[in-house]
């Protein structure tokens, strides 16, 4: 296997293992991230009868919101590289009674659809995680009809997102994990809005809009937040298993101290989050 192929295999395995946790935490996560889904769906402007695509869909909350607006006669194609993630999405579609959806295991770098086949593409926090984001954007443009819109989200920097960055920073400080490679795909790979704009333009898109959305993750306690992070992040789980029980206690003490400013007197937690959002036309 080439290094890129090995990376793709690792990415797929990571999300297969994360799917159960994302299913368990879906409602909590989406309650916070709803403003992002709303922004993206508004930009692709789903109308009855159109056909749209969601890449790296995960539980598919964003794509299913669009699917409701495509009904009747319209179709939403929901894809993810991990079959187990699609199982979570299928269950959510069944729960909502949404039937105008198709599900397919698909890598965003190789979209198994004809050229100029869809009217809009959604990708919430996906492009920055694939092995070759440029290839994924070129494929996105290929399957979009002329004038069609892609709407995407990509996290800003770790300083804006303590809900996910603080535990990993502390694991690095402890020497339990290696520091992330800033040139490798990851949560904060597209932290710079200029990088997003350049990637879209290099893929042949005309950038229409780029902005940031602020929102808040809320938990009954820091323990609830910690349990959620362990379910959502295979990397965090793996890092925690590499340290001793005493070190785990030290890790939690350090993390709790850094997040103390976000804890109210009653123990509830409100952790800030920020993401870039962008829309561009083919």
Account of the protein in words:
This protein has 282 residues and is of the alpha/beta class. It has one domain (3-158, 180-218, 272-281): 3-Layer(aba) Sandwich (Rossmann fold). 48% of the residues lie in helices and 22% in strands. The chain has nine helices and seven strands, in the order αβαβαββαβααβαααβ. It has a seven-stranded mixed sheet with strand order 3-2-1-4-5-7-6. The longest helix has 42 residues, at 3-44. The mean pLDDT is 96.
Low-confidence stretches: none
In terms of DSSP E residues, the strand content is 15-25%
Strand elements, count: 7
Give the proportion of residues in helices. Answer: 40-55%
Instruction: Tell me the name of the CATH class.
Output: Alpha Beta
Task: Write the CATH homologous superfamily.
Answer: Vaccinia Virus protein VP39
- C-alpha Rg, in Å? 19 Å
In round numbers, the mean pLDDT is 96
Structural class: alpha/beta
Separation, N- and C-terminal Cα atoms:
33 Å
Predict the CATH topology. Rossmann fold
Strand order of the largest sheet: 3-2-1-4-5-7-6
Q: Which CATH architecture?
A: 3-Layer(aba) Sandwich
């Amino acid at each position: 296997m080439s290094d890129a192929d090995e990376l793709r295999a690792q990415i797929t395995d990571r999300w297969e293992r994360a799917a159960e946790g994302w299913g368990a935490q879906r409602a909590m996560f989406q309650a916070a991230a709803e403003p992002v889904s709303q922004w993206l769906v508004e930009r692709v402007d789903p109308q009855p009868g159109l056909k749209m695509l969601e890449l790296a869909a995960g539980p598919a909350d964003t794509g299913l919101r669009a699917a409701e607006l495509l009904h009747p006669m319209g179709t939403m194609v929901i894809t993810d590289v991990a079959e187990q993630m699609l199982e979570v999405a299928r269950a959510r579609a069944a729960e909502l009674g949404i039937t105008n959806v198709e599900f397919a295991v698909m890598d965003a770098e190789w979209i198994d659809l004809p050229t100029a086949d869809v009217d809009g593409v959604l990708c919430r926090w996906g492009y920055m995680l694939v092995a070759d984001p440029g290839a994924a954007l070129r494929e996105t443009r290929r399957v979009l009809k002329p004038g069609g819109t892609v709407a995407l989200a990509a996290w800003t920097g770790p300083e804006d997102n303590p809900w996910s960055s603080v535990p990993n920073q502390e694991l690095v400080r402890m020497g339990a994990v290696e520091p992330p490679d800033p040139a490798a795909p990851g949560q904060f790979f597209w932290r710079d809005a200029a990088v997003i704009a350049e990637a879209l333009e290099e893929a042949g898109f005309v950038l229409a809009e780029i902005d940031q959305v602020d929102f808040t993750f809320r938990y009954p306690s820091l323990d609830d937040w910690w349990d959620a992070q362990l379910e959502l992040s295979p990397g965090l789980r793996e890092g925690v298993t590499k340290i001793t029980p005493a070190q785990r206690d030290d890790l939690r003490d350090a993390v709790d101290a850094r997040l103390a400013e976000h804890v109210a007197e009653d123990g509830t937690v409100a952790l800030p989050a920020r993401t870039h959002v962008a829309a561009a036309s083919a």
